[in-house]
């Protein structure tokens, strides 16, 4: 008997999903819908599709609970993956090859097709055990997370079809952990993309022209850089109230990502501009921070434009005031898993869910695994993957049976 024929059904479905090229910028969402509809039939789940915009479907696989009228659980997975530079991979990134040691190599193996299949395979086990949950479970596969979710979750959560799902709590993605722990993300930094524009007098490059657009811009940027430096120091040397070290998600990062001014050496430009990427930590008062930035800009007459700015940085409680936390913690305690509680340093679709007031945790049950999301040779070992299925076999009933 070959390894292939002995393969666990969960691993087979995982590898099949990995082979569907839902890769940006042209994800095969149609292929992924066909796969998921067939999968829903196989598991005896209801299946529906909501188009966030034409051609960008959110697929919903539903197991109706014993009490469908109380708030349901959303188990979210984004169906798209980031592009590959195939020359840097040792295997075809969309073949989902499995090595002898069980490593499955493919784009999306960690981010985050593993999690979507783990939810569904846990449901397969629960169905075999005839464990219909109290609350309805909606497994959602949403488009375009990897390009910011603007035509995915951001729109989906505002649609009537979403409101009808009556979601009370959501699970979404986390990150792999090289140690024994699982990382649990209870909040995210708010991404703020700004354009700063300074104007001045144009003219021949041989004079002292005032005001000078480039000087105005640089003076303002220097204030941003001083703030950047102080946050970098806080990350390096600071400690949280509980005495533990700061993680990246606990501080605010600032980076100038675009600089534009001038066309020719001997012409002083009348406009200079900068693109700035700021990730605002959840402890920051957003309105006060906005005022601070505007004051810095105003001192030198620099204009500020909010290009893509997220105005919510709420977090989900990780204490017994939150019944979903209590349910989750009981499962990780039972399974002897230590959780690292962190703020997600980048952005995921969870922010749109928290923004409309739904509590959400980000967790991808992958320990003893290097963090390879968006990297070459992204892989997940099948044993780790199957342990993750077991984790959800414990976790999903614990969440779905939380009394109303
Ligand atoms: Zn992801």
TrEMBL record:
Binding positions (Zn(2+) 2): 111, 146, 374
Transmembrane intervals: none
Binding site for Zn(2+) 1: 78, 111, 173
Domain of life: Eukaryota
Enzyme class: hydrolase
GO biological process, one term: amino acid metabolic process
Plastid keyword on record: no
GO cellular component terms, semicolon-separated: cytoplasm
GO molecular function terms noted in the UniProt entry: aminoacylase activity; metal ion binding
Gene3D superfamilies xref list: 1.10.150.900, 3.30.70.360, Zn peptidases
Residues annotated as the enzyme's active site: 80, 145 (proton acceptor)
Protein name in UniProt: N-acyl-aliphatic-L-amino acid amidohydrolase
Organism: Powellomyces hirtus
